[in-house]
Amino acid sequence: MAVQINPSILSADFARLADEAQAVRGADWLHVDVMDNHFVPNLTLGVPVVESLLKATDTPLDCHLMIADPDRWAPQYAEVGAGSVTFHAEAAHAPVRLAREIRRLGARASMALKPATPIEPFEDLLPELDMLLIMTVEPGFGGQSFLDIMLPKIRRTRELISRHNLPIWLQVDGGVSAATIERCAEAGADVFVAGSAVYGMDDPAEAVRALRAQAEQATLGAPWACAH
């Protein structure tokens, strides 16, 4: 499976989002953190900014909705053109119906799990999803330290995906950097959200390339990748 690097614009300069999107050309996706000050204690952006970003970049948008009532709001992000829409398992009332609606509208359907939420109860939902997001920090703020205790959960999630032979991407978000990305890749992740590790560097595009190279190298020797 190909490694994908998704720079998070939460760490970008919001006054220069169009320029910041261009600064990471070569990235696979732009990760857009949508927060509503209800599900998480922070407020960021919404559909109008996503629509504007889509006009400013050819890089597809990976929208991570840290919001209450995603059943109502998530489809709008697919409707305006987001390539991937992630809702939180903890917030969705009818996750299967929501995932199917997101797919019907032309986007990839993804479900996120907070650190304390186990993956096992959602095993039967996996065929409805295109990606799973394992949060490696508590959602709500950028710049947090990576939670090593999430590595076993990443491994268990990869094992479930492999057991069912599903083409699901496994994304990690939170504290992903040059110091942590290899451990995530070895555990089973193949999509990596990086904020300050990209936009905090002098050359964000080079940071994307370097992170990709690290993850690809770590994946080569990973047991889960060798099994495919």
The average pLDDT value, as a whole number, equals 96
Order of helices and strands: EHEHEHEHEEHEHEHHH
Give the C-alpha Rg.
16 Å
Strands ordered across the widest β-sheet: 1-8-7-6-5-4-3-2
What percent of residues adopt helix (DSSP H or I)?
25-40%
Q: Span from first to last CA?
A: 9 Å
Give the DSSP E fraction (strand runs of 2 or more residues): 15-25%
Count all strands and give the number.
8
Helices, by number, come to 9
EC number: 5.1.3.1
Binding site for a divalent metal cation: 31, 33, 64, 173
Protein name: Ribulose-phosphate 3-epimerase
Function: Catalyzes the reversible epimerization of D-ribulose 5-phosphate to D-xylulose 5-phosphate.
How is this structure best described in words?
With 228 residues, this protein is of the alpha/beta class. It is built from 9 helices and 8 strands. Helix 5 (151-163) links the parallel strand 6 (131-135) and strand 7 (169-173). Helix 3 (70-80) runs parallel beside helix 4 (95-104) and helix 6 packs parallel to helix 8 (204-220).
